[in-house]
Write a structure and sequence with these properties.
The chain has 478 residues and is α+β, with helices and mostly antiparallel strands. It has 9 helices and 21 strands. Strands 1, 14, 15, 16, 17, 18, 19, 20 and 21 form a 9-stranded mixed sheet that branches. The protein is globular and about 110 Å long. The termini are far apart.
């Protein structure tokens, strides 16, 4: 008879033998091959192997690639407020504005789809209680009103000014003739604010008022001096606006209630149509975009910058006072900044012919754009006149769907995000028909890609701008 201890050990061994040992490891046999020859060891000095065909000294920071997408959406309704400078030097500029207004109207009445638009005019004079916040009236025959109203109809457009579009131009010429006896402190941004908050312009019955709640808003300022919209709004006492002591620089305005800053007017416009509707509002400016040294007006000895046009064929001096033989405009940097921040257009007031400028503004007022602002600073590398690193793609509204380039027709051969598109290089200098990059316009920061001529994206098209981001991009202009 086996001892009890032996019996227990045998029983335990049998029990363990009957269990599945899940912890046991197995040897893995890896495949191998026997290579013939004699092993050797390289005893040479360590070295870096290079491929001469791929060697480069062009080292740089690895930067992201940004693509900004836009939709070229025309508006169905738009209210257009013109703010015209009424100071003593504006007579020739007002005359050119009135003479070339037809180009502005043509863009509105030929838009596709048709646009329902209102046009009103106020002046930059906020000192005169009879002018501040008021819209100027027109009168044709038995009809009169303080704004122009035109709506599309079958076969054309009907306006409250009369049976044809010539009456629209005549009515605008009356409204824009604001005179030259207004305040010398041209507060264009404040004047726009007053007109857009004047109760009679926004709270009368919707069928008989200028500002409509369901319409986009486009503000156009015409001035040969910079904005002076500080007094009575700002608490600052140090003034630096050009010319003279007008308002404090934006970076010295701190705290709530300092309405003098351009940031305030940008916020006012962006929120005018309610939260989320900033794209429905823009400000454009017809101002001096140059920063040349120019003579002073009316005996003011302070040095100024802007643009000068000689009336007698002689060159413009860079200092002194205007003897009457020059047409002077001082840099409108505050207006240009608000235009840039709200997606508007800035054009030069010093050009002799306003027709192209007003046509461009009319196109923008219709909701269509030539200028597309980039969300970040691009790395512009000029090469034979082309900004390498920037590329634009435009997909028309009727573009075919695609998965690869081979699915697309010849006119739109590139497949972008499922739609066929045409590809345009971005040039350094503005071409007759094409796209170009523009960082600054005068002293105003733009950071835009601008389309010219036949390349302007058609209504309802999709625009994509792709570019390398420049980490050291400066949001300022020389």
């Amino acid at each position: 008879m086996l001892p009890i201890r032996v019996f227990i050990v045998l029983s335990l061994g049998l029990a363990l033998a009957g269990c599945d040992d899940r912890t046991r490891t197995r040897k893995i046999v890896e495949p191998f091959a026997v290579v013939p020859g004699t092993p050797t060891v390289d005893d040479a000095t360590p070295a870096v192997l290079t491929d001469a065909t791929r060697a480069t000294d062009a080292f740089g920071v690895n930067v992201p690639r940004q693509c900004d997408a836009y939709t070229q959406v025309p508006v169905r309704k738009v209210d257009i407020l013109w703010v015209v400078d009424s100071s003593g030097s504006m007579a020739p500029k007002q005359a050119r504005l009135a003479a070339n207004f037809q180009g502005f109207i043509n863009q509105l009445v030929t838009a596709n789809p048709p646009i329902d638009f209102h046009i009103a005019v106020t002046s930059t004079d906020t000192d005169d209680a009879n002018a501040r916040g008021k819209l100027r009236a027109w009168s044709l025959g038995a009809s009169s009103e303080n704004y122009i109203s035109c709506a599309p109809m079958v076969g054309g457009v009907t306006c409250n000014t009369g049976a044809n579009l010539n009456t629209v131009v005549t009515a605008f010429q009356q409204m824009s003739a604001v005179g030259i006896n207004g305040s010398a402190s041209e507060r264009g941004l404040y004047a726009a604010y007053l007109a857009l908050t004047e109760p009679t312009n926004i709270t009368t019955p919707v069928f008989d008022r200028f500002v409509r709640p369901d319409a986009a808003l486009y503000v156009v300022v015409v001035s040969d001096e910079d904005d002076a919209s500080c007094t009575p709004m700002t608490r600052q006492t140090t003034c630096t606006a050009d010319p003279g002591c007008r308002c404090a620089p934006d970076n010295s305005l701190a705290g709530a209630g300092n309405w003098g800053s351009t940031d305030y007017f940008v916020r006012f416009l962006e929120t005018y149509k309610g939260y989320g509707n900033a794209d429905s509002v823009a400000l454009a400016a017809i101002v001096a975009t140059d920063a040349d040294d120019v003579p002073s007006q009316f005996g003011d000895p302070t040095p100024h910058v802007g643009c000068c046009r000689s009336l007698n064929g002689q060159g413009c001096p860079t200092s002194g006072t205007n003897d009457g033989g020059f047409e002077i405009a001082y840099s409108g940097s505050r207006y240009a900044r608000v235009a840039s921040e709200t997606g508007g257009v800035t054009v030069s007031i010093c050009q002799q012919d306003f027709s192209a400028a007003l046509s461009s503004l009319g196109y923008a007022a219709s909701g269509l754009r030539r200028d597309f602002r980039l969300s970040r600073g691009p790395d512009v590398r000029p090469d034979a006149g082309v900004a390498t690193g920037l590329t634009t793609f435009v997909s028309p509204a009727n573009a075919a769907n695609c998965t690869v380039d081979g699915n697309c027709p010849a006119l739109t051969p590139v497949c972008r995000t499922g739609r066929c598109a045409r590809k345009l290089p971005v040039e350094i200098a503005p071409p007759a028909n094409g796209a170009s990059y523009l960082k600054c316009e005068g002293t105003g920061l733009r950071n835009i890609v601008r389309f010219e001529g036949t390349s302007v994206p058609e209504p309802l098209s999709t625009v994509e701008v792709c570019y390398d981001v420049l980490p050291t991009f400066q949001n300022s202009c020389p």
